[in-house]
Write a structure and sequence with these properties.
Layout: E1 3-4, E2 7-8, E3 12-19, E4 22-28, E5 31-36, H1 40-45, E6 52-58, H2 66-77, E7 81-83, H3 88-107, H4 118-122, H5 124-145, E8 151-155, H6 162-169, E9 174-178, H7 186-189, H8 195-203, E10 207-210, H9 213-227, E11 230-231, E12 235-238, E13 241-247, H10 254-260, H11 264-276, E14 281-288, H12 295-308, E15 316-323, H13 330-350, E16 358-361, H14 367-376, E17 379-382, H15 392-398, E18 406-410, H16 416-419, E19 424-426, H17 431-443, H18 446-462, H19 465-488
Parallel strand pairs: 3-6, 3-8, 6-7, 8-9, 9-10, 10-13, 14-15, 14-17, 15-16, 17-18, 18-19
Antiparallel strand pairs: 1-2, 4-5, 11-12, 12-13
Helix pairs in contact: 3-5, 5-6, 6-8, 8-9, 11-14, 12-13, 12-17, 15-18
The structure holds 6-O-phosphono-alpha-D-glucopyranose.
Length: about 500
């Protein structure tokens, strides 16, 4: 931290998100190991260095005892993280239930639970109550650590109730809220039983941000159609109070990836991977094992490509890294079995005694191994059915300065709006189209690859996570100054 008269000259920022950037694993009564958490939100915010930031969130583990809580609080403090302790029942109802079985699928256009997920609908109210209770617990921790002048930045669908809780505690608090998923069309949001309460709580924030202009527009039209409020070019107005609504497309810390490629250890990994897959084009998918990522559809398209292009069968390999996530939610368990079944079928069908066309790993890779993999990839497949932004596409581009590989990208990922001109865009539901795009990408000439890559590389290296955070926070400060001027007139 830069210091002036013993004080930090950077703006104090409280970043509040359900998941801390580190997750805790218990090693003993009072000893903890901390591991970097996965997900787009964490990967973007790790790059944000220009604030005096503290993180407030859940460490991903149940800690019922005081000794464990004290030790974990101390270990996290070294990483500038502050834990919110949630008990098992709350995690079950709030995180597995309301957040990940209701809001997450709905915001990604997969609808509300029905048929075999009806049990969830019956307990909808208790899950919503747990959601509100959990949000209040986050607010209590924020309030304990808040100092006058702090900016409080709340993140994601887990914490839509938080802006309201914070403003009730202190109306002068500067509160921003940012959604990392799509905000769906108001026709979708309209089906949610708690639709109005959630919108009103978010509107308590001073600034509301989304990755794309479309998500912002959907949010404003949900507020006008469902709440009957007035939408203006600046945001949403309710009885003279304006909540500013805008798009702030996120990025990555591209330098971190570019620098990593220079490390001897990464260079060594690159050499090994090249030798291992010599004579074959490498295609890569890196996703959390989540319904929205379209993994079954992607590998079915790969199967179709192999079916229609026998000449390619021993010349291409698809590496699919599928990081397990939300494993207590039944839909995620079903997805895992479904993916394993398809992978087995394809490898049984097209594999030989010495090679298989599809390597599927149910695990994450460490940062350096991932950079090496991105660097040797010829074609990356990001075929989410819906995705707020998708930073894997950015990470791939950042690591491709020498190879200039092709990005096949879903038109339903927010990233399609920023990397669309350089990527090969596809409708991930259309397996025939994705299979044809695989062929197009594998056969693309160097000139075209170069042009497409340059376009995307320029974007990824100039629209970084640092810039994203700085723009959001500065807009939040301006919004508050403007509001003060308006009320003093
Ligand atoms: C998405 C969400 C994040 C979340 C991440 C990982 O990127 O937008 O808020 O942290 O997925 O999911 P998890 O449930 O493991 O936190």
């Amino acid at each position: 931290c830069e210091k002036q008269n013993g004080q930090s000259s950077k703006q104090r920022l409280l970043v509040v998100a359900n998941r801390l950037p580190v997750s805790a694993v218990r090693k003993g009564e009072d000893s903890w190991q901390l591991e970097i958490s996965v997900g787009g939100l964490v990967s973007a915010l790790l790059g944000v260095k220009e604030f005096d930031a503290r993180w407030i969130g859940w460490a991903g583990v149940n800690v019922p005892d005081e000794i464990g809580q004290k030790a974990l609080t101390k270990a996290l403090a070294e990483k500038r993280c502050i834990p919110v302790f949630l008990d098992e029942e709350i995690v079950h109802q709030y995180y597995n239930g309301y957040c990940n079985n209701i809001l997450w699928p709905l915001f990604h256009y997969l609808g509300l639970p029905q048929e075999d997920r009806l049990a969830t609908t019956r307990s909808f109210q208790s899950q919503f109550d747990a959601y509100k209770k959990a949000n209040q617990m986050f607010a209590d921790v924020v309030n304990q650590h808040y100092q006058e002048g702090d900016v409080v930045w709340c993140h994601d669908y887990h914490l839509m109730f938080l802006p309201k809780c914070l403003k009730e505690y202190n109306n002068k608090m500067k509160v921003g809220w940012f959604l990392h998923t799509p905000f769906p069309s108001s026709e979708i949001h309209r089906t949610l039983p708690s639709r109005s309460e959630l919108l009103r709580s978010v509107l308590a924030a001073d600034l509301v941000g989304f990755h794309t202009y479309d998500y912002a527009r959907h949010f404003v039209s949900a507020c006008t159609r469902i709440l009957g409020l007035e939408g203006t070019p600046e945001g949403v107005e309710d009885q003279g109070k304006l909540t500013r609504v805008a798009a702030f497309p996120i990025g990555i810390d591209s330098d971190r990836f570019i620098r990593a490629l220079e490390l001897p250890q990464v260079q060594e990994d690159i050499k090994e991977l090249k030798a291992r897959f010599a004579g074959r084009k490498v295609m890569l998918g890196v996703d959390r094992l989540d319904m929205i990522k379209g993994i079954p559809q992607k590998i079915l398209a790969f199967e179709k490509f192999l079916e229609e292009n026998p000449d390619w069968r021993d010349k291409v390999v698809l590496l699919q890294i599928a990081v397990p996530t939300r494993t207590d939610v039944p839909d995620y368990q079903r997805l895992t079995s479904q993916v394993h079944e398809i992978v087995g079928r394809i490898n049984g069908r097209f594999g030989t005694l010495t090679a298989v066309p599809l390597h599927h790993l149910d695990r994450s890779l460490d940062f350096h191994a991932l950079c090496a993999l991105y660097a040797v990839t010829d074609v990356a497949l990001v075929t989410s059915l819906r995705d707020g932004m998708n930073l894997v596409s950015y990470e791939f581009v950042a690591c491709q300065a020498s190879k200039k590989g092709v990005l096949i990208l879903s038109e339903f990922a927010g990233a399609a709006q920023s990397l669309g001109a350089g990527a090969v865009l596809v409708n991930p539901w259309n397996i025939t189209e994705v299979a044809a795009s695989i062929g197009y990408a594998l056969n693309m000439l160097a000139d075209e690859r170069e042009k497409r890559h340059q376009h995307n590389f320029m974007h990824v290296t100039t629209h970084t996570s640092q810039e994203w955070a700085a723009t959001f926070v500065s807009e939040l400060n301006d919004t508050i100054v403007e509001a003060q001027l308006r009320t003093s007139k």
